[in-house]
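Milestone 3.1: sequence recovery, worked example.
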């Protein structure tokens, strides 16, 4: 609950309420020992709330319904495991936030959005001590109505003083279309212990920093980037040791961007992944 202090020093309480439920229905079928097929129907929601500035209307709950079909397969006498899923998500009146007047964060409800995607992963062991794994995803996330500068339940944005902040079909922000990663691990026998070498490569495509088209253009694009990690280690009984290098080539991948304040985008803050990090991990089992 929030409060609004009027010019007569009268406190007017502000509150909001909402309700929702979550469910998950999953059906599986195993036509053989090496293949499993499944479908899932699930739903979730986030409660609404009150904005910090009491003159801004409370925001309502948003709801996400997910439809998914997929399979899990084991092939080549167990040497290859391959999983894939195709999904569609219906996101109703999604909540989004931005810096408003005087740099107060405002949370509003946007229009409906639809997210369609494909994700897959595999693990392949061509020889006894070599393991190759990879995973990737494609995401097509777009709005289904206009996003208005001033909240409009009709999404036409034609009221006096209103305008379209993002037209129908705008991609959701901070959501790369493509993400892929791969891991190669090789184990080396060393007496009673096993040492290993491991390399990880990850890539993601570009994405918008803001759903509103004008701020997104001012903030600039989150550029595509690729990172590489490397590790070498071993286990000696209950003791484990690993030397690692994260982000080997010191790639400054952009994860998000933000403006200096609510009414100015002349100075963009860029938040990146962790720079090159070299370290040692030691562990034990009790």
């Amino acid at each position: 609950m929030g409060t609004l202090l009027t010019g007569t020093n009268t406190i007017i309480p502000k509150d909001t309420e909402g309700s929702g439920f979550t469910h998950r229905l999953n059906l599986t079928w195993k036509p053989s020992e090496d293949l499993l097929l499944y479908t899932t129907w699930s739903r979730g929601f986030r409660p609404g709330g009150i904005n910090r500035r009491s003159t801004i209307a409370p925001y309502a709950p948003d709801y996400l319904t997910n439809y998914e079909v997929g399979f899990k397969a084991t092939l080549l006498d167990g040497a290859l495991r391959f999983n894939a899923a195709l999904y569609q998500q219906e996101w109703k009146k999604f909540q989004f936030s931005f810096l408003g007047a005087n740099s107060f964060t405002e949370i509003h409800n946007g229009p409906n959005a639809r997210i369609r995607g494909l994700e897959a992963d595999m693990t392949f062991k061509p020889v006894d001590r070599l393991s190759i794994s990879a995973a990737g995803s494609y995401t097509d996330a777009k709005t289904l109505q206009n996003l208005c500068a001033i909240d409009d339940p009709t999404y036409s944005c034609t009221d006096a003083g209103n305008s379209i902040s993002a037209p129908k079909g705008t991609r959701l922000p901070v959501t790369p279309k493509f993400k892929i990663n791969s891991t190669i691990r090789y184990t080396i026998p060393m007496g009673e212990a096993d040492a290993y070498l491991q390399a990880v490569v990850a890539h993601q495509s570009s994405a918008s920093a803001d759903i509103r088209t004008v701020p997104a253009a001012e903030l600039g694009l989150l550029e595509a980037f690729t990172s590489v990690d490397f590790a070498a280690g071993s286990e000696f009984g209950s003791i484990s040791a690993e030397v690692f290098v994260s982000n080997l080539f010191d790639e400054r991948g952009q994860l998000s961007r933000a403006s200096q304040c609510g009414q100015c985008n002349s100075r963009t803050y860029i938040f990146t992944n962790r720079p090159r990090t070299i370290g040692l991990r030691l562990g034990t089992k009790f």
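The first strand starts at residue 2 and ends at 5. The two ends are 49 Å apart (CA to CA).
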